[in-house]
Protein backbone atom coordinates (compact mmCIF):
# COMPACT_ATOMS: atom_id res chain seq x y z
CA UNK A 1 0.00 0.00 0.00
CA UNK A 2 1.41 3.42 -0.95
CA UNK A 3 1.15 6.17 1.66
CA UNK A 4 -0.36 9.39 0.32
CA UNK A 5 1.91 11.51 2.51
CA UNK A 6 5.18 11.00 4.31
CA UNK A 7 4.49 9.46 7.73
CA UNK A 8 5.54 11.31 10.87
CA UNK A 9 8.96 10.23 12.14
CA UNK A 10 8.88 6.87 13.88
CA UNK A 11 5.49 5.83 12.56
CA UNK A 12 4.22 3.88 9.61
CA UNK A 13 1.09 5.68 8.52
CA UNK A 14 -0.63 4.36 5.42
CA UNK A 15 -3.60 6.25 3.99
CA UNK A 16 -6.16 4.20 5.86
CA UNK A 17 -4.49 3.95 9.25
CA UNK A 18 -1.41 3.33 11.33
CA UNK A 19 0.10 -0.12 10.95
CA UNK A 20 0.53 -1.78 14.32
CA UNK A 21 1.40 -5.29 13.10
CA UNK A 22 2.91 -6.20 9.76
CA UNK A 23 3.08 -9.65 8.19
CA UNK A 24 6.17 -10.68 10.15
CA UNK A 25 4.71 -9.44 13.43
CA UNK A 26 1.53 -11.45 12.77
CA UNK A 27 3.57 -14.56 11.93
CA UNK A 28 5.59 -14.22 15.14
CA UNK A 29 2.48 -13.65 17.24
CA UNK A 30 0.79 -16.76 15.81
CA UNK A 31 3.91 -18.84 16.39
CA UNK A 32 4.02 -17.69 20.02
CA UNK A 33 0.30 -18.36 20.52
CA UNK A 34 0.74 -21.87 19.07
CA UNK A 35 3.54 -22.61 21.54
CA UNK A 36 1.50 -21.16 24.41
CA UNK A 37 -1.48 -23.37 23.53
CA UNK A 38 0.76 -26.45 23.51
CA UNK A 39 2.41 -25.44 26.76
CA UNK A 40 -0.88 -24.75 28.53
CA UNK A 41 -2.40 -28.00 27.20
CA UNK A 42 0.78 -30.02 27.80
CA UNK A 43 0.68 -31.10 24.16
CA UNK A 44 -1.97 -31.32 21.48
CA UNK A 45 -4.20 -34.03 22.98
CA UNK A 46 -7.95 -33.34 22.87
CA UNK A 47 -7.42 -29.96 21.18
CA UNK A 48 -9.94 -28.63 18.67
CA UNK A 49 -9.50 -25.18 17.12
CA UNK A 50 -12.72 -23.38 16.16
CA UNK A 51 -12.27 -20.19 14.18
CA UNK A 52 -14.94 -17.51 14.12
CA UNK A 53 -15.62 -16.54 10.49
CA UNK A 54 -14.29 -15.01 8.63
CA UNK A 55 -10.74 -14.18 9.63
CA UNK A 56 -10.74 -16.28 12.79
CA UNK A 57 -10.96 -19.41 10.64
CA UNK A 58 -7.79 -18.51 8.72
CA UNK A 59 -6.01 -17.74 11.98
CA UNK A 60 -7.10 -21.11 13.40
CA UNK A 61 -5.75 -22.85 10.29
CA UNK A 62 -2.42 -21.04 10.63
CA UNK A 63 -2.16 -21.99 14.31
CA UNK A 64 -2.95 -25.63 13.43
CA UNK A 65 -0.21 -25.57 10.78
CA UNK A 66 2.32 -24.33 13.34
CA UNK A 67 1.23 -26.94 15.88
CA UNK A 68 1.69 -29.59 13.18
CA UNK A 69 5.24 -28.32 12.58
CA UNK A 70 6.10 -28.45 16.28
CA UNK A 71 4.26 -31.62 17.38
CA UNK A 72 3.79 -33.51 14.12
CA UNK A 73 0.08 -33.76 14.94
CA UNK A 74 -2.87 -32.47 12.90
CA UNK A 75 -5.17 -30.71 15.34
CA UNK A 76 -8.79 -30.62 14.08
CA UNK A 77 -9.89 -27.20 12.85
CA UNK A 78 -13.44 -26.03 12.32
CA UNK A 79 -15.48 -22.87 12.05
CA UNK A 80 -18.26 -21.56 14.24
CA UNK A 81 -20.74 -19.04 12.89
CA UNK A 82 -22.19 -16.90 15.64
CA UNK A 83 -24.60 -14.83 13.51
CA UNK A 84 -27.85 -16.28 14.89
CA UNK A 85 -26.58 -16.02 18.46
CA UNK A 86 -25.78 -12.29 18.43
CA UNK A 87 -27.57 -10.29 21.10
CA UNK A 88 -28.14 -7.47 18.59
CA UNK A 89 -29.67 -9.71 15.92
CA UNK A 90 -32.94 -7.77 15.84
CA UNK A 91 -31.22 -4.37 15.95
CA UNK A 92 -29.05 -4.77 12.86
CA UNK A 93 -29.71 -5.46 9.18
CA UNK A 94 -29.93 -9.13 8.24
CA UNK A 95 -26.52 -10.75 7.94
CA UNK A 96 -25.47 -13.59 5.69
CA UNK A 97 -24.95 -16.82 7.55
CA UNK A 98 -21.37 -18.08 7.50
CA UNK A 99 -20.20 -21.67 7.66
CA UNK A 100 -20.23 -23.71 10.84
CA UNK A 101 -18.06 -26.77 10.28
CA UNK A 102 -17.42 -28.95 13.28
CA UNK A 103 -14.60 -31.50 12.88
CA UNK A 104 -15.70 -35.14 12.64
CA UNK A 105 -14.72 -35.92 16.24
CA UNK A 106 -17.07 -33.22 17.53
CA UNK A 107 -16.37 -31.03 20.56
CA UNK A 108 -17.67 -33.23 23.41
CA UNK A 109 -14.97 -33.58 26.08
CA UNK A 110 -12.48 -31.68 23.90
CA UNK A 111 -10.38 -28.65 24.78
CA UNK A 112 -11.84 -26.15 22.35
CA UNK A 113 -9.76 -23.11 21.49
CA UNK A 114 -11.92 -20.41 19.97
CA UNK A 115 -9.92 -18.23 17.60
CA UNK A 116 -10.83 -14.71 16.48
CA UNK A 117 -9.02 -11.73 15.05
CA UNK A 118 -10.15 -8.96 17.42
CA UNK A 119 -11.51 -9.02 20.96
CA UNK A 120 -13.41 -5.85 21.83
CA UNK A 121 -16.77 -5.82 23.68
CA UNK A 122 -16.68 -9.60 24.12
CA UNK A 123 -20.15 -9.99 22.61
CA UNK A 124 -18.93 -12.11 19.69
CA UNK A 125 -17.31 -14.53 22.11
CA UNK A 126 -20.41 -14.65 24.30
CA UNK A 127 -22.36 -15.56 21.16
CA UNK A 128 -19.78 -18.23 20.33
CA UNK A 129 -20.22 -19.81 23.76
CA UNK A 130 -23.97 -19.95 23.15
CA UNK A 131 -23.48 -21.38 19.66
CA UNK A 132 -21.22 -24.10 21.05
CA UNK A 133 -23.79 -24.98 23.67
CA UNK A 134 -26.04 -26.22 20.85
CA UNK A 135 -23.27 -28.44 19.47
CA UNK A 136 -21.74 -30.20 22.42
CA UNK A 137 -20.10 -29.99 25.83
CA UNK A 138 -16.36 -29.37 25.69
CA UNK A 139 -14.13 -30.26 28.61
CA UNK A 140 -12.88 -26.67 28.54
CA UNK A 141 -13.02 -23.65 26.26
CA UNK A 142 -10.09 -21.29 25.75
CA UNK A 143 -9.84 -18.13 23.67
CA UNK A 144 -7.06 -17.04 21.33
CA UNK A 145 -7.17 -13.64 19.62
CA UNK A 146 -4.72 -11.83 17.42
CA UNK A 147 -5.58 -8.44 18.95
CA UNK A 148 -7.16 -7.53 22.28
CA UNK A 149 -8.16 -3.88 22.02
CA UNK A 150 -9.89 -3.64 25.43
CA UNK A 151 -13.27 -1.98 26.16
CA UNK A 152 -15.07 -5.13 27.28
CA UNK A 153 -18.84 -5.01 27.95
CA UNK A 154 -18.81 -8.52 29.40
CA UNK A 155 -16.59 -10.47 31.81
CA UNK A 156 -14.68 -12.24 29.03
CA UNK A 157 -10.91 -12.48 28.64
CA UNK A 158 -8.54 -14.12 26.21
CA UNK A 159 -6.15 -16.90 27.24
CA UNK A 160 -3.80 -16.29 24.30
CA UNK A 161 -3.24 -12.82 22.86
CA UNK A 162 -1.11 -11.81 19.89
CA UNK A 163 -1.05 -8.15 20.86
CA UNK A 164 -2.71 -6.09 23.55
CA UNK A 165 -3.54 -2.85 21.80
CA UNK A 166 -4.66 0.12 23.90
CA UNK A 167 -7.30 1.96 21.88
CA UNK A 168 -9.91 4.64 22.29
CA UNK A 169 -13.47 3.60 21.60
CA UNK A 170 -13.52 6.00 18.66
CA UNK A 171 -10.81 3.99 16.95
CA UNK A 172 -11.26 0.98 14.71
CA UNK A 173 -8.84 -1.92 14.49
CA UNK A 174 -8.71 -3.57 11.07
CA UNK A 175 -7.13 -7.00 10.64
CA UNK A 176 -6.28 -8.05 7.10
CA UNK A 177 -5.17 -11.55 6.23
CA UNK A 178 -3.58 -12.81 3.04
CA UNK A 179 -6.19 -15.56 2.54
CA UNK A 180 -9.11 -13.14 2.82
CA UNK A 181 -7.81 -9.65 2.07
CA UNK A 182 -4.70 -10.29 -0.01
CA UNK A 183 -2.26 -9.01 2.64
CA UNK A 184 -1.36 -9.47 6.30
CA UNK A 185 -1.64 -6.37 8.47
CA UNK A 186 -3.27 -4.89 11.52
CA UNK A 187 -4.05 -1.19 11.31
CA UNK A 188 -5.71 1.26 13.63
CA UNK A 189 -7.57 4.34 12.58
O1 LIG B 1 -15.69 -8.29 20.87
P1 LIG B 1 -16.63 -7.74 19.85
O2 LIG B 1 -17.14 -6.36 20.19
O3 LIG B 1 -17.75 -8.68 19.53
O4 LIG B 1 -15.81 -7.47 18.53
C1 LIG B 1 -14.98 -8.42 17.92
C2 LIG B 1 -15.55 -8.92 16.64
O5 LIG B 1 -15.74 -7.82 15.75
C3 LIG B 1 -15.29 -8.22 14.48
O6 LIG B 1 -16.30 -8.85 13.80
P2 LIG B 1 -17.43 -8.04 13.06
O7 LIG B 1 -18.73 -8.37 13.74
O8 LIG B 1 -17.06 -6.59 12.96
O9 LIG B 1 -17.46 -8.71 11.65
P3 LIG B 1 -16.25 -9.13 10.69
O10 LIG B 1 -15.77 -10.46 11.18
O11 LIG B 1 -16.90 -9.20 9.36
O12 LIG B 1 -15.17 -8.08 10.79
C4 LIG B 1 -14.14 -9.15 14.76
O13 LIG B 1 -13.91 -10.01 13.67
C5 LIG B 1 -14.60 -9.89 15.99
O14 LIG B 1 -15.27 -11.08 15.64
O1 LIG C 1 -12.09 -2.19 16.22
C1 LIG C 1 -12.73 -3.22 16.06
C2 LIG C 1 -13.82 -3.59 16.88
C3 LIG C 1 -14.46 -4.75 16.66
N1 LIG C 1 -14.04 -5.54 15.67
C4 LIG C 1 -13.01 -5.21 14.88
O2 LIG C 1 -12.66 -5.97 13.96
N2 LIG C 1 -12.38 -4.05 15.08
Q: Based on CA inertia axes, which overall geometry fits? A: globular
Give the mean pLDDT. 92
Q: Mind summarizing the main beta sheet?
A: 5 strands, parallel
CATH fold call: Rossmann fold
Q: Give the H and E element order.
A: EHEHEEHEEEHE
Count of distinct strands: 8
Domain Phosphoribosyltransferase: 20-164
Motif (PRPP-binding): 112-124
Family: Belongs to the purine/pyrimidine phosphoribosyltransferase family. PyrR subfamily.
Organism: Nocardioides marmoriginsengisoli
Question: How does this model look, in words?
Answer:
It catalyses: UMP + diphosphate = 5-phospho-alpha-D-ribose 1-diphosphate + uracil. The protein has 189 residues and is α/β, with parallel strands linked by helices. It has one domain (18-188): 3-Layer(aba) Sandwich (Rossmann fold). It is built from four helices and eight strands, in the order E-H-E-H-E-E-H-E-E-E-H-E. Strand 4, helix 3 and strand 5 (140-148) form a beta-alpha-beta unit. The radius of gyration is 17 Å and the shape is globular. The relative contact order is 0.19. Mean pLDDT is 92; it is low at 1-13. Bound molecules: 1-O-pyrophosphono-5-O-phosphono-alpha-D-ribofuranose and uracil (URA).
Describe the structure concisely for a colleague.
The protein has 189 residues and is an alpha/beta fold.
Q: Can you tag this structure with a few keywords?
A:
single chain; alpha/beta; Rossmann fold; 3-stranded antiparallel sheet; 4 helices; 23% strand; globular; binds 1-O-pyrophosphono-5-O-phosphono-alpha-D-ribofuranose; binds uracil; transcription; PyrR; glycosyltransferase
Amino acid sequence: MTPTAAPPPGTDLPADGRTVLDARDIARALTRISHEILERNKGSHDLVLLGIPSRGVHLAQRIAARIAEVEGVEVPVGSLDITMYRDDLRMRPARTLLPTEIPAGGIDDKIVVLVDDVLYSGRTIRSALDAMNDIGRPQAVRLAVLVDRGHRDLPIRADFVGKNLPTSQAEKVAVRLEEYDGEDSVTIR
